[in-house]
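Comment thread on ticket #2218

A.B. wrote:
> Attaching the input chain for the structure job we discussed in standup.
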Amino acid sequence: MLFTSIGFFIFFPIVTIAYFIIPHRFRWVWLLLSSYYFYMCWNPKYLLLLGTSTIVTYISGLLIDRANRIEDEKKSIRIKKLWVFASFAINLSILSIFKYFNFFSESLNILFSSLSLSINLPSFDIMLPVGISFYTFQALSYTMDIYRKDVKVERNLGKYALFVSFFPQLISGPIEKSKNFLSQIEEKHYFDYYRIKNGILLMIWGFFQKVVVADRLGMLVNTVYNSPKSYKGFQIILATIFYAFQIYCDFGAYSDIARGAAKVMGFRLTKNFERPYFSKSIKEFWRRWHISLSTWFRDYLYIPLGGSRHGKLRKYLNTMFVFLVSGLWHGADFTFIIWGGLHGAYQIIGDVLSPVKGKLIKRFKIRTKEFNYKLLQVITTFILVDFAWIFFRANTYSDAITLIKNMFYFNPWIFIDNSIYNLGLDSKEFFVAVVSIIIVLAMNLLQRKRDLTLQFSKQNIIFRWLIYVTAIIAILIFGVFAGYDAQQFIYFQF
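C.D. wrote:
> Ran it. Output below, let me know if you need it in another format.
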């Protein structure tokens, strides 16, 4: 069930109204049933995998908690590590079979063939279950939180199942930590007009980003990236810039709709984006982009590997490993691994060159607090991020190389002879796309130093409702009524 489908616009009000009518002690049951129904709308068979992950991590939590009570500390730690290993092994095995088996099988077949070995590993025609990467990581975070004693074990299987399957963020996050969410299930959420209104406003902003911005930009991006040999120079550059905003608005839209829907019912989900394209370094970009996943990798992979505690070489190895794993998490293809490797290399090179950069700043007396210097940092960071997006979006590695080769072709006349409007968007659609990007960036800037929701709530009621109506009309005209074809969210494939 897509957030942008008619089904969701029927489903969500029914779930919400019933949630506030049902007595508090039964609400978690209603949300659990609603969440499972929401997931079954994709494919009822997927529920078996979601249930398996839930039960495995739930039982591992109980076993780890029992091991915590063993008086022999060494024995306690040994047993806890065993259960943590078992939980991770089972869950990651399921994820690997459905998401990575064919990738590794095909890769090994290529390797065997290059070595003249007559070994042919089989492949399976299986569909990737939606949301499996997200709910698997969320469930595994509970195992680690119990192991670290960051949260008390949840003995109610149903409430724990709700933590894993809460429908607003089930498919594409944000990836919630158990210590942030489980306690909210016990809270009494009352019908609060202002909270509900703010939640709906956040959802409306999400719908705008998706149906007006992301899907429109996707028309041009798909045209170029699906035929990389047919386009050159500024056509590829434009498509790549558009993709940067497509994926940001697409994923940001899902996160905002999820957060807004949860807020309507009284739940607080993690903010997943914080003006990422205004970052002044790659390190800062990853503090602002897909925050819940970045935090997951930091807390449950980078730090356990040793983080930066064992010297710079170990730090760089850990950084690169985490980004390679992050790339693989996003997709079973070498293009995603290269994308992750590029971001790892960016961070390592940036750290290595930091002393040189400091000396140059001092030598040439560069004023780092001035606007022009900060703007240069933002532009440089965006270029690096956008270049890496080529591998993320390209259908194959060879397509990515073709796009990069063809990108270095000087053809500015496409902006004069109107051939730019042959890339999937006519002149009117192209204009709407550019204006939409400007609106998104403007909203990002306005959010920098102020709470827009609070500021907006202070305005006169006539002005507020004028904005409400204008926003809804804009979504309907420039989204649904503009030949709009509902597209899946990009991160559904991960």
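A.B. wrote:
> Thanks. Noting for the ticket: Residues 6-190 form one domain.
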